[in-house]
Amino acid sequence: MPAELPMNDVVRLVLQAESESKRILEEAETQASQISDDARRRAHELVQKRRLETAEQAQAMIDTAQQEGQRERQVRLDQAATEIETAVKLDDASLQTLIEAMMRCVHGAS
Fold first, then answer.
1. Alpha helix segments (H runs only) across 1-110
2. At a CB cut-off of 8 Å and minimum separation 6, what does 103 contact?
3. Tell me, what's the pLDDT at 4?
4. What per-residue confidence (pLDDT) applies to 94?
5. Residue 11 C-alpha from the chain's centroid
6. Whole-structure pTM value
């Protein structure tokens, strides 16, 4: 029987080594899964952050364009008002004649 003991020891050592290898492999797979999940989460966070930054930049550009458009509109309105005032200046006599003509049209008199 002494010849069998060393074989039993060898089998036991092989089984222990196999069990240890299995445990190490499971730990490695768990770590790999955690690393992969963490990388996905970080990538998702980066994408969301970049989208938010891009949206904020786009909104700032839109706001600036709207403000510039409003300023341009006001400048054009002011210019048009000045041109109209210049073109329509009437002396007092012409203004009185115009008022009288309007009154006749409104009241139906000739």
1. 4-87, 92-107
2. 109
3. 57
4. 81
5. 64
6. 0.52
